[in-house]
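My current task is to audit a protein record that another person submitted. I need someone to confirm that the token line plausibly describes how this chain folds. Take the sequence as given and treat only the tokens as open to question. This is what I was given:
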Amino acid sequence: MKNSVSFILCSKNDNYEKDSLNRLQTSLLHNLSITEELDREFIISDWGSQIPLSEVIEVPDKYKNIVKWNYIPQSICSKYDSPFVEVLALNSAARLSNKNFIARLDQDIMVGSLFVQSLKNEEYTQDSFYFSNRRDFKKGQELRCDPDFVQLNVFGNPYYYFAVGMLMLPKSLWFDVRGYNESMIYYCHMEHDFIERCKAKSNLVNLGEKLNYDFYHIYHDRSEGKSKKLNDRNMPFLNTENWGILK
């Protein structure tokens, strides 16, 4: 297999924005099934759920050997002044990767067949990293991963500051830049900072343009669940050599 991939994501058993468990269940089963022919694993960081996600999310027996649950205990989560610290959860998942590439997904993103076929048939190089915007399902819309069926969500410049569908990079690059800035524990700017640091060392490829934005966001209502605090865009990068190791 040309490309081996660790899909990493993070979530919490808290019904964030009403039905987060159902969105995670739906996307995970879809992504496991559609990627069956790939050399891949799924690593899910569970940010301090009282009832662990691994106890409530169904994983068919044939996939259990490729799904890893990375449980982060409440004793660690409670130390941070933020309801859900994605930077730490994702970095922690990345440290567990056993594949050549790390692909960061949100817990409600479904990947399409164009992306899967590209991983199967094309060479993704170690001197580049890849970003795609996403498509958004409308409320009540059938979850059919078809670019002609789902609304594209690209509305900003630069394109990689908005609507993340997929961010994929060589594992070596993720470790070289030491992951997300772990001082950015609030909402916004964490992705921008990470991508700009990767761009300083590698070539950014617009994967969305190549694959017709073959990444699909499951609709959900918006709530007040996210911290209203914002990261400072100019926050210095502070990760030590122990980034991604939660203590």
